[in-house]
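DM from R.C. (forwarded with permission)

"hey, sorry to bug you on a friday — could you get me a structure for this? deadline for the figure draft is monday and I only need the backbone to look sensible"
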Amino acid sequence: MTTVFVDVDTQIDFLFPAGALYVPGAERLLPAIARLNHFAAAQGIPLISTTDAHSEDDPEFRQWPPHCVAGTTGQRKPGETLVPDQIIVEKQSLDVFTNPGFPALLDSLAADRYVVYGVATDYCVRLAITGLLATGKPVALVTDAIAAVNPADGARTLDEFTARGGTLTTVNSACGAGS
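My reply, with the result:
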């Protein structure tokens, strides 16, 4: 079975209190995200990392404060989450499936299963898992490696995800207990 890990938008502007669009509590996810990414690299599991990469006058900034402007510190991923052979997929909107190369990338990886984590559960993660479920492949969401902007919306996302056939997992399970 070919599993692909999908690390959604774990960028400085989202993960840290000083970030431009901080997700509350997201900094606590760093050890989990780093563990998942390093496990994937060590096991030869393909790792896709989505990242916002906005222009300074991006239309999205009419809805959201400016964040993850391409080339800025806030747009970067924290060093401890970077691993060799990580596939970075840039996007200019909430939904990674708006990147025209993303579906072809998924096809080339020929995944039988996706393991997803990152931020924000109620926005970019929700859109990623919805799109991945639409591929017809099993999708697992790592509950101790996600954070929501609004906890009630995050809980609703989990309910909708499991109702559509998605499964919930943990870092320990995704990495194998004791890994």
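R.C.: lifesaver. The chain has six helices and six strands.
me: no worries. The chain has a mean pLDDT of 96.
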